[in-house]
Amino acid sequence: MLLSPMKSSSQTSVSRNLDRTLVIMAKAPKPGTVKTRLAQTLPVEAVTELYRCLLDDTMVLARSLCNAEVALMCRGSDVEELKQLASGAADVVAQKGEGLAAGLTSVFAHFARGGRRRVVAFNSDSPHLPASVLGSAFEMLAKHDVVIGPTHDGGYYLVGAKAPHPALFDGDGMGTRTALDALLARARGLQLSVGFTDPFYDIDVEGDLVRLAAELRLAPTRAPRTARWLKEWGQAVALLRTGT
Prior knowledge:
This protein is α/β, with parallel strands linked by helices. 38% of the residues lie in helices and 15% in strands. The two termini are 23 Å apart.
């Protein structure tokens, strides 16, 4: 299995002293706590390593944005392990409260206070996303209060803002089929203008993994560690495609 420490393409400095911050919503890769839906059909150890690969490649993607500071937001119990995995390539910040809604609220309370920074919160399992999409999210914040990246399943893979809006995430959760509609309803209720990045997909269920495998066979450099995992587990992923 692939067990090398997570490294990014640049580890020279955590802070870049800019007005843009990209925050990865992360978890420590512990068995039974990540990608649990995939663990119903693949060995839990393999799924845990898959998440570690996704997170590592996401870190590299984030650091490819030379005009943005990178940070990780996580549960307090995951901070030390993620600091070791990040190896100084990003700040690691503990969220206040439990669950994704609390995590997103913590992102903007911590990084966007004062309204002087553009902050984008991004999930940790879409390293194959074009970097230009992340760049466009920051650009949209020049004209909108909030920017959202919708997923094809009714959720969203990123959300950005220039100020804290705690009520925006009440009871929320990325990855649910109603998350996007609920977020948009709250944004309208708060009279916030909303911009959208291109629809995309993250890796939650078997079909997502099969789709990613097909894409990375053609362009493995988009997420090299994940591509290596998929090569190792190619037969198992192929069986997912046939429903076996």
